Automatic annotation (TrEMBL):
Name of this protein: Acyl-CoA dehydrogenase
Record's signal peptide: none
Required cofactor names: FAD
Family recorded in the similarity comment: Belongs to the acyl-CoA dehydrogenase family.
Span of domain Acyl-CoA dehydrogenase/oxidase N-terminal: 29-141
Gene3D superfamilies to which the protein is assigned, alphabetical: Acyl-CoA dehydrogenase/oxidase, N-terminal domain (1.10.540.10), Butyryl-CoA Dehydrogenase, subunit A, domain 2 (2.40.110.10), Butyryl-CoA Dehydrogenase, subunit A, domain 3 (1.20.140.10)
Domain spans labelled Acyl-CoA oxidase/dehydrogenase middle: 145-238
Keywords: FAD, Flavoprotein, Oxidoreductase
Domain Acyl-CoA dehydrogenase-like C-terminal residues, every copy: 442-527
Keyword Oxidoreductase: yes
Record carries keyword Transcription: no
UniProt xrefs under InterPro entries: Acyl-CoA-dh-like_C, Acyl-CoA_DH_CS, Acyl-CoA_Oxase/DH_mid-dom, Acyl-CoA_Oxase/DH_mid-dom_sf, AcylCo_DH-like_C, AcylCo_DH/oxidase_C, AcylCoA_DH/ox_N, AcylCoA_DH/ox_N_sf
Annotated Acyl-CoA dehydrogenase/oxidase C-terminal domain residues: 250-410
Length: 570
């Protein structure tokens, strides 16, 4: 992996970042490409042929495939070698999540195993706990599940009512309560359960399925992802050995929130893989389907849709692997404080989760539209993708709560730069105008932030303003990630698809700047800040005076390349 400069999460909002400092998919090693190929072949050859059985909830197939994935090493990317894992870099882990996404419902089961179901033990378990569980997680012999949500507490996890009290003998904690919507619950061998000790101290426990008093409810009837198991977990006076306390008593929130942060990053990669699949299906259908004597792919509005899908996918991919590279560098320098390392990049993880899941919804919606009436028919894959995609904006914290996290964290941890946003002149010659626009939006972000802070939003009020600020931060990260990736490719003389990258960036930044400036006009009247009105007016005037991009022509060129290759191209 290329050496990438380490930076702390959130700093992109006020610091100069150069192209050499970010990781991009063009930096993949031969090992990364081999891993991607192996993971994709596993899904195409092993999972998709039995996906109908999985969708019919024949979970014996699911369990069999998890063990097959274990044989290939796909379950051990994040697990240290001494417990049987491969301990791969964070880019490799991200690649696996993206490629396994092709398996749809199976991908959710897989994510539950390698992500939230086992990472709490990987990151926070004792040596004894790791030895007892991780070697079996790697092989698929033990399947994990994450039990946080309750009927009365979803986003507000700390309001959980599941209780834990120490037994009189001091050897067990006795757990009582119900957890809801637990992935993998039909066949899980153990659960990461969060409960309040003595009704107050939020704590994590490892609970084996065969403990007396553990039971699960019937399968939930869901809109999509019908082949993943989703049931309630019921705990009735369950005796959990003291040795199965995960982390410290009263510190369960550290585990819960940090695992959710990593889960958001992995979820974004899964959503990326689904979006690429939907785009590929759409292009192939558009080329095959003929209307009025012409292929659908020859019509301008279809090309426009394909281009928009590809542009957003390119930006999405740029953000996700930039974050993966940053996490990897942070991991190497974390000095044992894993919780702090994950927390450092909580903003980027939330940004990726929001952006990727909303891009996925856009892409699958356009995919159905391109398919026309056939897209509404269950025998076409895009119909299933459409239904499956909807939950991703709810998984791992709704996009609304993630927007609040993004804005609140940036306001709290990233003080406004006293001398403005600095940028190095003379760089990114191919994107001089886009670079200037990006840094103008960064400055506008802090002007908005200053006005919003006067409203005392730290306590979570004025959520509409926080959401707008979050959207600005999301788009800054998106535009910058795409721009730096293209700039880096050009600097490295990556001639192949270089023009495509340039087109992606110019189209995205042109349209995003328009969107952000337009939305700001809806916010500033409420803020009643004359200085801010002048600042926004100046930004609009500067944008209109600058060179405008011919997005119609560029989108035709983008679509032509994608249609030619019949899939997303970098």
């Amino acid at each position: 992996m290329a050496k990438i400069k380490e930076y702390k999460g959130g700093c992109f909002i006020h610091e100069h970042v150069s192209a050499s400092e970010v990781f991009t998919p063009e930096d993949f090693t031969d090992e990364h490409h081999m891993l991607a190929d192996m993971a994709e072949k596993f899904v195409m050859k092993e999972v998709l042929p039995v996906l109908g059985d999985i969708e019919a909830q024949q979970f014996d197939e699911t369990v069999r495939l998890l063990k097959k994935a274990g044989e290939l090493g796909l379950l051990g990317a994040d697990i240290p070698e001494r417990y049987g894992g491969l301990h791969l870099d964070k880019i490799s882990s991200c690649i696996i999540s993206e490629k396994v996404a092709l398996g749809r419902s199976f991908a959710v089961t897989f994510s539950g195993q390698v992500g939230i179901g086992s990472l709490p033990i990987v990151f926070f378990g004792t040596e004894e706990q790791k030895k007892a569980y991780l070697p079996y997680v790697v092989t698929g012999e033990k399947i994990g599940a994450y039990a946080l949500t309750e009927p009365t507490s979803g986003t507000d996890a700390l309001a959980a009512k599941t209780s834990a009290r120490l037994s009189e003998c001091g050897r067990y904690y006795i757990l009582n309560g119900e957890k809801q919507w637990i992935t993998n619950s039909a066949f899980a061998d153990f659960f990461i359960v969060f409960a309040k000790v003595d009704g107050q101290r939020f704590t994590a426990f490892i609970v084996d399925k065969d403990y007396m008093g553990v039971s699960v409810g019937p399968e939930e009837k869901k809109m999509g992802l019908k082949g993943s198991s989703t049931r309630s977990l019921i705990l009735d006076n369950v005796k959990v050995p003291v040795a199965n306390v995960l982390g410290e008593i009263g510190k369960g929130h550290i585990i819960a929130f940090n695992i959710l942060n990593i889960g958001r990053h992995k979820l974004a990669a899964t959503a990326l893989g689904m979006a690429k699949r939907a785009l590929e299906l759409s292009v192939k259908y558009a080329k095959e389907r003929r209307q009025f004597g012409r292929s659908l792919s020859e019509f301008g509005l279809i090309q426009h849709k394909i281009a928009d899908m590809a542009v957003k996918t390119y930006v999405n991919e740029s953000m996700i692997y930039r974050t993966a590279g940053a996490l990897e560098q942070g991991w190497k320098g974390e000095n044992g404080n894993i919780a702090q390392t994950i927390a450092d990049y909580a903003v980027e993880c939330s940004i990726n989760k929001v952006f990727s899941t909303e891009v996925l919804d856009f892409v699958v919606d356009e995919a159905v539209q391109i398919h026309g009436g056939y897209g509404y028919m269950a025998e076409y894959e895009v119909e299933t993708l459409y239904r499956d995609a909807r939950i991703y904006r709810i998984f791992e914290g709704t996009n609304e709560i993630n927007r609040i996290i993004i804005a609140s964290t940036l306001l709290r941890n990233c003080p406004s730069p006293s001398k403005g946003i600095s940028r190095q002149e003379g760089q990114a010659v191919a994107f001089a105008n886009e670079t200037k626009q990006l840094y103008d939006v960064k400055s506008l972000f802090w002007a908005m932030a200053g006005a919003i802070q006067k409203r005392h939003v730290e306590n979570g009020t004025e959520q509409e303003l926080l959401a707008y600020l979050a959207d600005m931060a999301i788009q800054i990260y998106a535009m910058e990630s795409a721009l730096l990736r293209a700039e880096k490719a050009i600097a490295q003389n990556a001639v192949d698809m270089e023009e495509q990258k340039k087109n992606y960036v110019q189209v995205y930044i042109q349209e995003t700047i328009q969107q952000l400036l337009g939305c700001s006009l809806n916010v500033i009247p409420y803020l009643q800040d004359e200085q801010l009105v002048k600042r926004v007016s100046q930004s609009i005037e500067t944008f209109m005076r600058g060179p405008l991009v011919d997005t119609v022509t560029l989108k035709r060129q983008i679509a032509e390349k994608v249609i030619q290759h019949e899939k997303y191209v970098k």
